[in-house]
Here is the input.
Amino acid sequence: MADRVVLTIGTKKGVFVADAAKPRRRFTLRGPFGPGVPVYSTLIDTRGTPRLYASSCNPFFGMKVLRSTDMGKSFKETKSAPAFPKGDGRALANIWSLESGSGRRELWCGVEPASLFRSRDGGDSWEMVPGISNHKHARKWSPGNGGLCMHTIIRDGTRMHLGISTGGHYLSEDGGDTFTASNTGVGAGFAPDPYPEFGQCVHKIARHDDAPGRLYMQNHGGWADWTGPGGPRPDIGVLRSDDHGRSWRSIAKGLPSDFGFPIVVHPHDADTVYVVPLEPATRSCPGSAPAVWRSENGGDSWRRLARGLPKKQSYFTILRDAMDIDRLTTPALYFGTTTGQLWIGREGGEQWDCLFDSLPPIHNVKVAVV
Amino acid sequence: MAPAPTVTVYVPGPLRTYCGGAAELSISAHTVRAALDVLERHQCSLYRNVCDETGAVRQHLNVFVNSDNTRDLGGVDTTLRTGDVVTILPAVSGG
Here is the structure.
């Protein structure tokens, strides 16, 4: 019977693990593991005996994948990390996403420069997935502010959705063998063509099992006032698809900004979705007053959730993988900030409390009930 | 070609776990590049920490021959002589 809420917290100085009994009153913290080394992605793999994974992105000695088999009491390096084949010409610069796959041991990993790797043995060996890594567009993608990263991997049966910054959304319908740029309706603000075939700065994509075909996307918005070639492009930042990502439409109306990074779907209601609008210039919440915004009707309208959060003078950013939601009956949201605070939004974000206020800058937060 | 000179490769603390705990490795190589090739063949875990997939020394590592940074010598083509000490160090600097 599941009885612990477990958080993995990837930071600039290693990965932390926090856990609590189901009422989530008090979390205990362990770490940092891989101390001093940035962690951009974590995974709580609940298939069979739970395993925790973290990318350890060492600027000196290269990329590692860390694995814990004792629920975050200790981590060890897997036998190898993703690496480009000899002669490819690219070198791994970062690991941005780790996702579980089929069976008990398959893992998928998105890296920088944007490419996809697959492990069939729980992370001990990796193979590059050529259908996207060697896609005809791959050498035309360009890095965004965070680097040229593959940050989103979503599996949906034989479909796979990838989010690449700056590359766009790519869809596979054959289990990951081949991919197609699938960005109809996804705008780009930094190119003369407002709706290119590919090259959009997608920030994050989310879906829900109960809504087949539906996807939510946080794209790089903030271009409503653009007056250059191609003209203004309002509301390109928060989008929804109802056809497996073949086409997208804006659901940004009602938000104070269409710029942001994370997007999260309620675990029990596919119509309920959360975003964190940010001012594009400062990448902090409008008015320096942090808030999560929730839609309960699939993006038709939005409501601000800020009870318990600072009311002013807060300039942190919540990065693309730094927000998650647990799966308890009344779920709690969690987000980590670039100023090292970890917040919990109880009752679906109605009431916010700071769990830890002096961690290193937070890149990544994942939660599971195990 | 003359027999390759024997040199000592000094391994920094964080990397010793990748070569059985050894602080020093004795290898024979005419150049730094050849020394790295030896590491790739016989200490592949250690090598992966020093060089990326393209074979380049990782950006934030420095390789010294005795007290000189190979960047100021001939890079990885720097010639080695018997008794030289090749030191691999992370480029930690600043406050």
Summary: Chain A has a mean pLDDT of 96.
